[in-house]
Give the backbone structure.
Amino acid sequence: MTELFDFPKVDYVGGKKGLDFLDTKGYNYYNPDEEFTINGETKPMKDWLKFSVAYWHTMDQRLVDPFGEGTAVRPWDVDGVDDMEDMDHALAKVDYLFEFMDKLGLEYFAFHDRDLAPQGRTLAETNANLDKVVDKIEQKMKETGKKLLWNTSSLFTDKRFLAGGATTPFADVFAYSAAQIKHSLEIAKRLGSQSYVFWGGREGYESLLNTDTKRELDHIAAFFKMARDYAKEIGYTGQLLLEPKPKEPTDHQYDTDVQTTISFLQTYGLEKDFKLNIEGNHAYLAGHKYEHEARFAREAGLLGSLDANMGDKQTGWDIDEFPNDIYESSLVMYEFILNGGLPKGGLNFDAKVRRASFKPEDLFYAHMAGMDTYAAGFRVAMKMYEDGFLEKIKHDRYASFDKGIFADFENGEGSLKTFEDYILHKTNDEIFDKVESQHLEAIKATLNNYIYSVLGPTFN
Ligand code: XUL
Ligand code: CO
């Protein structure tokens, strides 16, 4: 078969070919078959990290911005245009996706229903178009062994969703959303997707002045219950994930951040049925670090999957940049390791190339750079995990709670009176004597040393 992309297969070169990425064009840190052990479980790197291509960015994104037209040049374009309305064209793009994954050694992908095929005049026609592309994807998955990390439904692109899908005030639009999700879950079951994601892009409000927030939250919770019940009914065993984001396109998205989403799930008794898909850029928009969101999801037992991208700390919107920050990826991967990996999740590149990186080869470079950023972070985090570096710091920091009335307190026994008896006559100096310096600069310097000592020798 003739090659669709003019780009060679990408291999692990392990830093042995020099520093300049454009000369080496190989993975320096991502060595798919190298084995790593977490919590007694040994698997090759590729099965821990499970990198995934996002169809909406890599296959569909034209690199528009609010001030300018798309710059993308893609090998599937006809006369410079990606003909999104044409079914033959939609089917042809599937071949490009599978060759792209094959050349990069990527095993997973993710899509929204609307990424794949054009809409018809009715949902029935739209589903028929979609099913034709899904048929082809199913066939290709069988032939190649590639897997679907997750799929999802776009309840935000079409104009009918201008005021939301599950939280819309317009009943017919709500019905459409319910029916659309039903079909999407059937696709999840059919393609064996590991997870099913709900990102509530327009499930929030533009203005409190016209919004019955309580009624909308009741609606979306009941909507999620219907989705959960239908997934059970059809025997779909993937995990159901909510993806927090504070805003954009809405002024306020209900699933604002991890802690807000957890409390929503608990309020409506859904915390056993849904986990979370955490995204880097969304964390920034919420005023958090990515590792903060991963930490709080993990501790609640709800870390399901990761959208591996970055924002720009000076920009107040979602730029979905490919990850390149090894400091951040090391700390996110540390949470990932403490989570024992992501059994039904992975690292999905919900990321797009910059508008100025418009050539097909940039799609390859971007994924390679993103994979290496997370493979590097994984290596650094593995070393910190094996050494117990951060766990020892945390253990020592709380050691005064390990004995006596403090240990009893941690076991659920204790009263204000107990602590009063203990502390009442100690002097202020005696108490401050037990307060220790945190040495945060030293901790951060050690983290830098870990990054250097793990990654630096690669290039020697
Ligand atoms: C939007 C976003 C989505 C979801 C899937 O900010 O992250 O692409 O990941 O709908
Ligand atoms: Co995302």
Observations:
- Residues 30-387 form a domain with the TIM Barrel fold (CATH 3.20.20.150).
